[in-house]
Write a structure and sequence with these properties.
single chain; about 600 residues; five-stranded antiparallel beta sheet; about 10% helix
């Protein structure tokens, strides 16, 4: 079946014919534009049977399908397909001539893009004026200091992102938040929003019933200077203020609301900025420590038939427990990167004003990238992360930031996309691992982001927050039916905490929390070690193939807290950087246990 060289392109198109029902002497066969002549295949195809036709070429990496029948006079489309059909499974019909005797599909000259589904009730778009709003977020300040809540909405890169940005602007307006700029000296920089809430005060936030996508809420604490119009507050102990040491470091609450409209009202849904379709009916919530941690938070969901997988999440950590990294966890003596500072170990602590306390504990990539932390551990050999899409090999910062894909959309095929920005398994390989190799022993030796001391510390203290970029399955709260309400508490536990100060910790109601009155443990980790055992627990990270649905999977293993008597002491589980747990997925034997003496 000669279907030509596709213009000036020497692409090979392969057409596969397979019987859907009935019987044939040859039920499946394939031809391409190099090995057959026009129309010759019909002699193999029994008449009055339903045949599925799959057209693939070696350039677009797509399979387009349609259905046909062979008749005494030639052939015809079947199964509801025609040349203009948009039905799934009929896409290849556009490549065929009109039904008749010639059965030669034409060349596919452009990549097929599925049309956006039009919902019942019309196409989604700018729904700012038509959507209704409901109070669904409450943020409560249990810290001693006034807290400035900072809303960072997504940018308006195109029309569909612009609609979403308008809704966040309206959300901020309804919550009586003030505008400020990402760069106060540049009024064209990203627009953010802030609001001050005092100790014991709550801030209520209404969101559109049509849905709203992907923004985060951070916190500034201990600010001595009130903000001027469009500016940030000043002299804050905690908070990523531009130009301060802790810029870009901190715990955030992330939120996307699904659309509650159904049926004829679906046209009131917000357009999804990621793909231009209408927002689905799913709510997403998480607490993230990906860039670092500062203000402790907890999250409580009210599930009124919303089918939520979590009802509580905790992101409580101790700034005076901030872990160190060294050459055993960061690939600092390799052909990719050499830095002798890591031989002795480096601190991840940052402070805006050391005399007033600690501002945050930064993730390892923050130390690797400029400005590279603070003295006396300031990195003297930083490497800026690459552009997200580049054919250059990933550098050391890219590996710990899970950054870099060779082409936009390359991650749709996780078997060929192997750089750290392609997905969880690919980033977990680490700079010393072998791309595409995901067994537990190899992952434990690759020195990837998931096995840094920073991530292992967050797992050891029982944090539910995102500890690294692809921690989705372990740390995303999902409500399948939109409309759940959420309460976020700053400094959960006893009132009037100051997380930037060195606090004592107490064990109560099966939790370790800061308590300056009754606390007897110097750090959170010390409290956890004294009151919990530890067992090796697995977390799987997956990346789905967009074409086949098959999953590329990596199993990561962490020492996590369990009730006393159900595990081993912390030191036993974490021995040798928890290599036994990481490589076997099993809790190590407790060789510290004393053998009972025999009765004489």
């Amino acid at each position: 079946m000669a279907i030509g060289p596709c213009g000036k392109q020497n692409w090979i198109s392969t057409v596969t014919y397979s019987v859907v029902n009935g019987n044939s002497t040859q039920e499946v066969f394939s031809v391409d534009n190099k090995n057959a002549t026009a129309g010759s295949v019909t002699k193999y195809m029994k008449q009055n049977l339903l045949w599925k036709v799959d057209v693939e070429n070696d350039h677009f990496d797509q399979k387009l399908s349609t259905y046909i029948k062979i008749t005494p006079s030639g052939w015809e489309f079947a199964h509801g397909c025609n040349k203009t059909s948009l039905n799934p499974g009929c896409e290849a019909a556009m490549l065929f001539p009109s039904p008749g005797t010639n059965l030669s599909p034409g060349c596919q000259m452009t990549k097929y893009t599925p049309p956006n589904p039009t919902p019942s009730g019309g196409q989604c778009g700018d729904n700012t004026a038509t959507t209704t709003w409901q109070k669904r977020i409450s943020i409560y300040n249990n810290c001693m200091d006034d807290a400035y809540i900072v809303l960072t909405p997504p940018t308006a890169a195109d029309k569909q992102h612009f609609y979403n940005a308008k809704l966040w602007n309206k959300t901020a307006e309804l919550a009586q938040m003030d505008e400020m700029y990402a760069n106060p000296q540049n009024k064209t920089s990203a627009l953010l929003f802030r609001k001050k809430i005092t100790f014991g005060e709550s801030m209520d936030i209404s969101v559109p019933d049509g849905g709203i996508a992907s923004a985060n809420f951070g916190v500034l604490l201990g600010c001595e200077q009130p903000p001027s119009e469009g500016d940030w507050p000043g002299s804050c102990v905690i908070g990523g203020i531009p130009g301060m040491a802790s810029s870009g470091v901190g715990t955030v609450f992330e939120y996307s609301a699904g659309c509650t409209y159904t049926g004829a009202d679906r046209n009131k849904c917000t357009v999804n900025p990621s793909d231009g379709t209408c927002m689905g009916a799913t709510d997403y919530f998480d607490l993230s420590m990906v860039s670092g941690f500062n203000v402790p938070m907890s999250m409580e969901l009210t599930d009124n038939g919303n089918d939520c997988n979590f009802t509580e999440m905790s992101a409580v950590a101790d700034l005076y427990d901030c872990p160190k990294e060294d050459q055993t966890t960061i690939a600092a003596n390799s052909t990719l990167y050499t830095n002798t500072q890591l031989n002795a170990g480096i601190s991840l602590v940052v402070s805006n004003d050391k005399s007033r306390g600690r501002a945050g504990c930064m993730a390892p990539e923050q130390w690797l990238e400029p400005p590279g932390g603070q003295d006396p551990y300031k990195n003297t050999d930083t490497q800026a992360a690459s552009a997200g899409i580049t054919t250059d090999p990933p550098n050391i910062s890219d590996w710990y930031a899970c950054n870099v894909m060779k082409a936009q959309g390359a991650d749709k095929d996780p078997e060929t996309c192997l750089t750290p920005g392609c997905g969880g398994p690919q980033c977990a390989v680490g700079p010393l691992g072998t791309p595409g190799v995901y067994d537990m022993v190899s992952l434990s030796k690759g020195k990837g982001k998931p096995y840094t001391n920073y991530v292992k510390y967050l797992k050891a203290i029982g944090s539910d927050a995102y500890a690294w970029q692809f921690n989705d399955d372990a740390s995303t709260a999902i409500c399948q039916k939109a409309g759940a309400t959420v309460k976020v508490t700053l400094c959960p536990g006893p009132p009037e905490q100051q997380p930037y100060r060195n606090q004592t910790w107490a064990f109560s109601n099966n939790k370790c929390l800061p308590d300056s009155n009754t606390g007897s443990y110097p750090t959170l980790l010390a409290c956890m070690q004294a009151n919990f055992d530890y067992s090796c627990q697995k977390e799987e990270v997956k990346k789905l193939n967009a074409k086949t649905g098959a999953a590329t999977t990596a199993q990561l293993n962490y020492c996590k807290p369990v009730p006393k008597g159900q595990g081993v002491p912390y030191d036993v589980c974490m021995k040798n950087n928890s290599q036994y747990c990481q490589q076997t997925g099993k809790t190590p034997p407790n060789t510290q246990q004393k053998t009972p003496s025999k009765t004489q």
